[in-house]
Amino acid sequence: MIYSFPIFFLIISNWLSFARSRSVHLIALIAFMPFVIFVAGFRYYSDTDYIPYVEIFNSLPVLFDFTIEVAKETYGEVGFLLLNSLVKTLGMPFFVVTILAALFSITAKTYFAFKYSSSAFIVLTLYFCLHFVTTEFSELRWSIATGFILLGYNSFLKKNITFAIIFFMVAISFHYSAIMAIFILLGLLIASNRFWLCVFFVSLVVAIVFKSYPIQVYLNLGVDLYAFERLQRYLNDPSSNVGLFSILKVSLYPLAYCALGKFISRSGSDTSLYSSHILLERLSLIYISTALVCSFVPIFFLRLAPLVDFLSILVLVLYIDRIPSHVLRVYLKLVCTILFGAWYCISLSKSLLVPMEEGGLGLYRSIFETY
Q1: How far apart are CA 290 and CA 150, in angstroms?
Q2: Cα–Cα distance, 227 to 49 (Å, whole number)
């Protein structure tokens, strides 16, 4: 089955863990990332959101007839609607939108991973085990937005504030949830990694309390918009919260940082990371803490999850790559591939068992089957 390609990538990742050359990972990225783009981009009625997105595409006028009223009456952010309208204006079918979304999202994440890690292929493979089916395969708007968010963070780390602002604004135009990325960015400037590590432990306690004693917030926002209605429904439902395993998963990242950091220190290796790596770790801690605090509102947690996992996996692999022992590095990457592979197999099997009409995953079909 084509959905099992991350398992094949995990096998390749274990082989690549023996390589010491960054160029080997570059070759693997060039060889295999187009396949991921192909699978996600050329899908055809294989996920639960495909039909609603087709309906949005069909309801939109060509670009010359696009008005503010159209943007208000059609579900979706203005950037995404304009993209659909542009594709329609050029006389192209809807699947071009999915191709463009997959091409941009996966290319942006590949660029970011390769820029900051010498083991980029492993980083992306572990990320796909958690979010290929959900984010890259189903969530068109959010997949594009997360790509722009990462480009914004990259520009910020390079001190190119103008481009960072542009990327964040474009991200918001594709998904309103991207506004959280701007507030999280401010955390990079106001405190150290040690401070945010302490915040993480407090946030973990808060998440456990929310999980053990669900809270109910009666709120009437008085706004007739789908996004606000959905938020209101989550806040007013005390049984609406994130699963325990999801909370534990994101909580393990900082604990792994602490363990690997101490191990590197005991081994006599230099524990200091480059300034960009320090900021990436801080960014990861801020995302994790924010996600845990928001765990009683699943819509927030689920939106943050792809960025939490992508950044945290990147930092985790950065720590592993700094371990002096080559054998231990290979062993730890093997452990990671086993754990993430198991998570993917379990989540994939559950998604396939749920009917597509109820949010599950359908058997894979490509656009080529229609010709």
Answers
A1: 17
A2: 16
Can you tell me the distance from the alpha carbon of 283 to that of 277, in angstroms, rounded to the nearest whole number?
A: 10
Residue appearing with tokens 């099997």 = 349
Name, in order, each residue with C-beta under 8 angstroms of 178's C-beta and a sequence gap of 6 or more.
Answer: 145, 146, 148, 149, 168, 171, 172
Q: Residue 189, Cα to own-chain centre: how many angstroms?
A: 23
Are 334 and 159 in contact by the 8 Å Cβ rule? The answer is no
**Cα–Cα distance for residue pair 279/109, rounded to 1 Å:** 17
Which of the four pLDDT bands, split at 50, 70 and 90, describes residue 235? low
Strands (E) in the chain, as ranges, are: none
The DSSP bridge partners found for residue 43 are 366
What sign results for the dihedral spanned by CA atoms 136, 139, 141, 145? negative
Give me the residue label for tokens 């604990």. Answer: 255
* Whether the Cβ atoms of residue 116 and residue 110 lie closer than 8 Å to each other: no
Of residues 114, 8, 20, the one with CA closest to residue 330: 20
pTM of the model: 0.91
For residues 91 and 241, what is the distance between their CA atoms, to the nearest angstrom?
A: 43
Q: Which amino acid is at 200?
A: F
| 74-132: pLDDT as tens digits | 888 999 999 999 999 999 999 999 999 999 999 999 999 999 998 999 999 999 999 99
Task: Spell 222-256 as b/e; 16+ CB within 10 A means b.
Answer: eeeeeeeeebbebbeeeeebbeeebbebbbebbeb
Q: Report whether 181 contacts 171 (CB < 8 A).
A: yes
